[in-house]
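Please discuss these two lines.
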Amino acid sequence: MISEYLLINILTIIVPLLLSFEKKIRFYKNLFPLLVSVFIVGGTYIIWDVIATYRGDWGFNTLFITGVKIINLPLEEILFFITVPYSGIFLYETGKYYLSEKKIQIGKKTVYFSSAFLIITGFLFIDQYYTFTVLIFSGLFLLIAQLLNSRLHILNSFLYWLWILFMYLPFLIVNYFLTSLPIVTYSPEAIWGIRITTIPMEDFFYSFSMLSFYLLVYLIAKDKWLKKEK
């Protein structure tokens, strides 16, 4: 029998997977840089997940998972770090094909200030482990992206910010089911306690940092992969 969490994973990836061989997008050709991103970013977030689960920051309701575990995480949770980036980066590449890129101006000082603000705020909530970690990761993304911005221009990309905003739509749908059933439960000591419907505020930062890191590593790997092919 398919668990609810496994079904969410399947529904997340099924359409992008079926359209990966579409002639215009040909997303299957980007499999190698995608795998690099999944390995590096997904691996990092899985390590965080293992530690957070061990600490009790969050847990998984046994009523909605198969019970199969890998490194003490439900199989469905591991798959989450594959299905989400696959679908997300597929949507990015689709948008890149159909929409024209525009540069937007975001000053270095603004980025560095935002990064510092997130990191400093994170340390103010060091006792709330999920709040602390997710703010640090968000701040680190902005810092790293800015340091690499002269080559990748991700922070000045209209498509990147449009993609991030668009990805909050499936995020809201998926996270609503994850937190309302609930499939994922949170320790009140690890979060602010502020929720949008049933979704902890921290999850919005989590989604931003995770998707952004996936895309950043993907673009770096893709750039190097294309240079090798030439």
Summary: The beta strands are 58-60, 69-70, 73-74, 184-186, 195-196, 199-200. The first helix runs from residue 4 to 18. The first strand starts at residue 58 and ends at 60. The mean pLDDT is 95.
